Hints:
The complex is a heterodimer of chains A (311) and B (298). By secondary structure, chain A is an all-alpha fold.
Amino acid sequence: MAQAAAVAxxxxxxxxxRASATPRRLPYLLIAPAALLMLGFIxxxxxxxxxxxxQDYNPTKPWRNGFAGFDNFVHAFTEDPVFWxxxxxxxxxxxxxxGLQLLFGLALALIVNQTFAGRALGRALVFSPWxxxxxxxxxxxxxxxxxxxxxxxxxxxxxxxxxxTSWLSDTGTVFxxxxxxxxxxxxxxxxxxxxxxxxxxxxxxxxxxxxxGAGRIKQxxxxxxxxxxxxxxLSTLLRAVWEFNNVDLLYTLTGGGPAGETTTLPLYIANxxxxxxxxxxxxxxTTVAFVILLFCSIVYLRLxxxxxxxx
Amino acid sequence: MSTTKxxxxxxxxxxxxxxxxxxxxxxxxxxxxxxWQIYLPLSVYLVFTLxxxxxxxxxxxxxxxxxxxxxxxxxxxxxxKVWTEREFGTYFQNSVLVGLATLVLTTIVALAGGYALAxxxxxxxxxxxxxxxxxxFVPGALLLVPLFEIFAELRMINxxxxxxxxxTVFQLPLSMILISNFIKNVPYSLEEAxxxxxxxxxxxxxxxxxxxxRPGLIAVGSFAFVHSWNHFLFALMFLNNQAKQTIPVGLNxxxxxxxxxxxxxxxxxxxxxxxxxxxxxxxxKWLITGFSAGAVKG
Lengths: 311, 298
């Protein structure tokens, strides 16, 4: 998102003093509600997660609660194979999912950026899944993948696909099945972002390239892609973080199963806290997730040049 | 923009494929993509997009047990069942309440903060912007435990207020960035002119800036509504009382039941989708603008 850079470097606001000059306190008053809410419900919880990560804390087993030092972390890294599995799956999920979303999103954006009959309708239709929520996406694909009445059954009727297996409960098929379900909703997101940026490419550049005899492929590599670079890098990173964090889809689609095959780290955290009430351990896992995300944030801020020249 | 060689913009004979003259002023390179290269991939993608929608309609409208691929004879039994027996009527009300309250709260708080960011230079501004940006990386899901504690302390567990507050807070950073960008697009001189005419800052803002901000506010408000309508984990965690639940939690319950009632699930899904579809139909023209104006989170 090239715009993120604009956020980083706001144009210097006018400093002229005038009769109706505002009290110095006004900007602070204006950001106070937002700042207070974010302090109370984001900053403070983040700090308490760090605190809890050093505690044994389980409301259902109060007799064991107390200071635990780094036991939770030691347990995660040395004794908990599930933790490592979730890390590996998280990486696999994010890389495959975001990679495919970018690829298809770019292609889709290039297509609907053309002028053709029925473009408005075409855009509206292919973008429509973007509005659909994680849980609703799950509901839809649960229906599609159902072994008795889903699309699989009809595929089997015409000779493709295996009859009677539910793609979501088979360890061999659950990964691609979940990927496809999330692609359905994620590709339009990328396509919309890229389309927004495509529209700002100057047409003159193409005309000039054409005069030079550059074909469409060349034009794409030398004009379109460089122009989109910033937007692509930043939206991919944001999307990667978002796909990593988001638990709605997998929580409801597979619940992390079968056999933990689709459990991301955040999903494991949610399960550990919501179902097992092991708040201390969940907090330690959250801390690990934070470290990973912090690393991503630093990369993001670097790329968006937030640390760069200030006004 | 930097990579192309500077070329004289002189209409030169085109090398590829001679074609009938097109209206002047239209760029040609990508415009002359063969039609099939547009329609073929688009149709394939359209099929992929629409089959799931068709499927959910099919299950919602055909009688239980039917395997027909057309929803005929049509029945609305599933809708009636989820609405009354499965409490979707109640969930719907709760979701509307949460969505509207989040919309109003987010818009007001973000409007104040966004104005400060757009129009003032103040000490903690850079730090505050950095905090906004960083908070995009803090997932609500990971903060469930402390948030639960806080709401327990505030005696807000099982009250919709907890979900409204949580949704608002996590919607705020993005909304504020968007709104401040929208405000920056309104020339400051307009406001100054109003002061000269005797308006105070607030009146000038209300009379001059606010009307121009309407598209931006609609986009931001709609995003807030849609997000809180769709989001699931906060409601699942903070609302234990079934009568207080929201639509996504209701859908999850339908999915995780021992024997999934597919007709009810499909009908519930459609009920969940209707408000979102309406909102998007309404804001469509502002969608791309809204996106162009700032960083975006899906």
